[in-house]
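Researcher: We're teaching a course module on how sequence relates to structure. For the next exercise, students receive a sequence and then see the predicted structure as tokens, so they can try to spot secondary structure elements on their own. Here is the exercise chain.
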Amino acid sequence: MEFTWPLMLWGLLLLPAFIAWYVFGVRRIRARAAGRFAEAPLFAQLAVRLPLLRRHVAMGLYFVALGLLLLAAARPVMAIPMPVDKAVVVLLIDTSGSMEAPDVQPTRLEAAKAAAKTFLDNFPPGPRVGLVTFSTYATLNVPPTTDRQAVKDAIDALKPQESTAIGDALAAAIKAIPGRTAPATNPQPAPFGQAQPPAAAQPSPPAPSGNLPPAAIILASDGGDNSSRNDPLKMALLAKQEKVKIYTIGLGTPGGGVFNYQGQMVLVPFNPTLLQQLAAITDGKFFYGPSANDLKQVYRDLGRTIGWEKRKTEVSALAVGGAGVLMLGGGLVSMLWMGRLP
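Model: And here is the predicted structure for the students to work with:
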């Protein structure tokens, strides 16, 4: 906590003085009352002694309220989490054939889809969310948008396909984030007999680093990369350069999963090594989701973390409001416990 006017904190020294004045006053009033009786035992029998809590709780509330008011005079400033409207998050979901493995019930892909929608439910409404899916190629299904339902509908429509291209998916995600430098991707070869399409125009220069809005990529995959034309590690280095954190989520179990793929029983391994490296390069985090419930919890936690930033905000009003509540409470306690209500 910081203070705009720290010199006003010296006012807190008045609080012990007021407490001492109160204690001295209570003792003096009681001594005067006892002096009016010739017989001290008689005064002890006539005087009504309330429990210690009832006698002093009201003034205790007043003193705490006074402390808050003195604290508010120094104009305290705290770092409070607040949603960042300009933040962008791109969800990357692996739709390769291995995502049909049932070691994460009901399948890796279906569990990832349900968990991604959990993220959307817990993410603040202001920031934009995009969706990139990848198998043999990467596809930008939904550009970053505030329309959560559009992203959910796109997630529901996902179907398993073929290979895995994590590097291409990262390239597509970085390109979709406003203000970032589009990576130079290796073009897909033209079919035999057709001319190679012209190279894409060079992207416009990115915004200055200080003006880049917060951005993050959440990558859900079972690991492995067997069809990328872009090196995943190089894409992670570019993401770090562009101040984009990559959060990776491993889908699968250590022993892998066996399922019927095109009429054959296939063992699909789970390889989290690449996912861990991608997260480490960008100062992100790697999460392991061995079950559907674990995946939902990971996405829920990410939704409550990403898209928020701590901003320094003056909280004097909170201190004054708290003091008002305490003073009101002290008044009510005094009336109820001291017999001043009918």
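Model: If you want an answer key for the exercise: Residues 187-209 have pLDDT under 50 and may be disordered. The two ends are 45 Å apart (CA to CA).
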